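Hi P.,

Sorry for the delay on this. The queue was packed all week, but I finally got your sequence through. Input first:
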Amino acid sequence: MRGFPVDFLSFLFKVPDFDAILFNQVIEIPNQSTTLNKLELKKKRHSGIPDPANSLCVEDIDLLLNDVARENQLLVNCHFNIVVAAGNEQIQKAGNFIESALFQLGIIPSKNAYNQLELFRCALPGNGVELKSYDWFLTTCDAAICFFFKETMPVDEPSDFLVRFTDRQGIPVGIDVADLPMRTGRISNRNRFCLGGSGTGKSYFINALVEQYLLYNMDIVIVDTGHSYSGLCSYKKGKYITYTDKKPITMNPFQITEDEYNIEKKDFLSTLIGLLWKGAEGIFNPVERDVISNVISAYYSSYFNAEFPGLTEKQALRIRDRVLTDMRASFTSEAVLSDLDWEELFSGVSGETEDIEMYIPFEESLETLKVLNDPEERRRIYKVVFQQELHAALQSEIRLAKRRHENNRVTVLNFNSFYEFAIWKIPEIKVEEKISFDTDEFRYVLKKFYKGGEFAPILNEPADQSLFTERFIVFEIDSIKENRVLFPIVTLIIMDVFIQKMRFRQDRRKCLIVEEAWKAIASPLMAGYLLYLYKTVRKFWGEAIVVTQELGDIIGNPVVKDSIINNSDTICLLDQTKFKDNYADIAALLSINETERRKIFTINQLDNTEGRGRFKEVYIRRGSVGEVYGVEVSLEQYLCYTTEKPEKSAVEIYTNYYGSYPKGLDAFVSDLKVLKTPLPDFIKRVNKAGHPIN
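Then the structure:
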């Protein structure tokens, strides 16, 4: 703690073997002009007699008067006393500790025993007037405040949403990590970012947080890649879902109702299709995104509106232009029409059919125009012929479009039907908009998710409907974390499950915790979706927590910076010792000032382990200021949270034998206490035997 800004008198917390300590602090504000006059008079008296001691007094008074004049300081009379109570054998040790601590601060106290009652009486509220003149000393107000004992032991925060940790001495304390800081303006969202190296206790901290969250009206979804939450999920009877080749995690993100179809869902599906096509690190250019967005709109329009929607304005104009071009080529081949002003003739031709005066076959119209000398009559007949041809072309195109619409109408919502619809729709959009789009690449890459493909079940089988009402879900996707195709897709789909819970479970809190799996979707393609999730979750009484252990994950990753850190007002840091040499980059990214940095590097470094169980410390910054807390739990909780493979295996042997996690855990701890062997030895015996030791 050397060099750390602390209360000078905080050493009183560490006094050994005392029964009680009373620290009395009294300040009196005297008349300023009278006090200054007395000081000037005293200065003159001392300066009038040449003597080294008098010169020192004059110098001290000058320094004080300079402070008062330059800084406009207030002069005050002060009194401080410390009354210590302890047993006969302990009083000397306690007194020596206090005297030594004061001496290190440059304070030499007056050590008295004769006036204990007098000092105790003066400590009673309002009784400071009994202090004698020799008990006071004169100084400035700033100096007087330095002697104040300003710290207190942490106390529970005034909130009904408390999470229990311990202070640095191991005393339980409840803090509100969400509601109270929001009400007081300390934070503007409940999102959290958690960073700590391997083995520093990230999962230990998150397990403790989740267990306490489950005491409240809260739904929790965790995306994990290391089986860190299997024990807690089993104990709380949550739903633990793992990805295997025989039983993959399946969803049908396309299966929605008309009420659920909104701009957010459309953006999610656009992002999903882009991810399937381009991969997590791919680039989705604006044209491609717009085409996919149009296909999605047409896809749901075809499903929700079964009737043929008619030709679009662009389609009708395209037909008109084609007919116009064909007829112009036919008519201008006749020399007799060479004098016509075609631009004037074509202007004002709307293509409406209700005002056609008569039907003139196209071939006859050419012969008729040859013998007509009147230009106006030629133009009128030509207009009628043109309208007839346009009407016929439109009717033909409408019949053809109706047939195509019926053949490609969406009757079931899943990826299979979307793929078929997109393969038909995209070429039509290309022709209509005159754009470039690699349809062949799109068709080939997405084919593996289509029926018969390698990953066909993932997007075509509906999710377990109970997930939407399940309070605690852990998705364990460790088996596919190296699969560059599946990992980001499954992660994104799981996050969509959370968003559906977020929207439709409005009567409860929601929390999404993403462990290392977030790296799968922290790409430019996913940036917009991540940003949407982080900004939206606050509006639905929810929070998102991202947990990581790699320094490189957060430095230089614009997605992390813009989407995650900038929208996480709460930062949780575990032991940062391994990052100490290049911590400046992290401090700059997380806006950690020098004072907060000093707090961080005291994590797990203090001599505060005596008489305590297993614990890890964590720095929690809500807004701009943070505090260090201890995550201290019982042996049962430790065994439930542990990620050490031998410990997990030994506990699983007991839980499998007893048929339930709570019973097995209780039996494990009971046998451990009966045998009175160290935990590591007991774990070795259980794993070696393969059955409970009792």
